[in-house]
Amino acid sequence: MINYELAARILSGEATADERSQHIHWLNESAANVQLWEELRMAWQLGTDATRYQEVDVQQGWQKVRDAIEPKVIVAPRLFRPVQFAAASVILLMMVAALIWLMMPERILLPESFAVSSDVQQEVVLSDGTVVFLNHGTNLMCVQPFTSDERLVQFSGEAFFDVKGADNWPFVIDMGDLTVHVRGTSFNIRSYNEAGVAYIDVSSGLVEIRQKHNAQEVLQLEAGMGAVYHKSSGLLTGVKANPNALAWKTRDIKFYNTPLSEVLETLERVYDVELSVNDTTILNERLGAHFSQNTFTYILNVVCMTFDLTYTEDNGALILARKKKGE
Q1: pLDDT (tens digit, 9 = 90+) per residue, 298-315?
Q2: Other CB atoms within 10 A of residue 89 CB
Q3: Model-level pTM?
């Protein structure tokens, strides 16, 4: 159940740091909470933009709202605390915004921006039926519903796309220097703005990748294939798909004689941790293992026991080291 008093303070920009932290904790409890908050946020935004629609008869709208309240109950008047008033305003704003939206003779298509904070994963269903599962710190921006000859989205971060098939309606992802063109397929993209490398791994269907400075050359990827793009050099290379590309979403991790350097990199990405070693020879060790729905602590302990390692924490980072004799 959403706390409307807290919602009002956050939407109005009056929430304290503790209240914002409480709100993030509530979002993390379930995907339903994230969806409810997105609907509330969009209703708030729609309400603030409502003044631009001159066709709406506000008095008629309020009369419909009043007529819809049954039965009519007379209660003794009482004073509202400021926060209670703000909460009530949120509810009324949602009602009025929805009413205005339904009463508009021609609904104007407004750009909608989907963003996920670094603490939340979120599933988004676009107007064409495409499902996008967004990882931490990801931004997906597009106009909803799609109205042009192509379904264009702008993207940074990491996400798994399950694109609804449409032969004459291409789905295009703008990643800055790269564009990804598909019609109906599923694939994972990892391309954070601060990272120097972008990765694309295809699960099904066909994906076409184009570089903006050389759009004539197209790299085609089928299921089981991937691509690595080095942003500084502009080098785009086709590779075998990473078997752990979706581990951040599925928590299913497989290592086949994998160098520990790659093992640690995978754990960092999946569990949002920072790992390093005090001896680079540790990175040459190789691991074969399958983890499914295990905690990070469990996997770290397995790695340490396998290679006779220990670890310490330093400013939030975990440093792995070989055990000394006698330890």
Answers
A1: 999 999 999 999 999 988
A2: 17
A3: 0.61
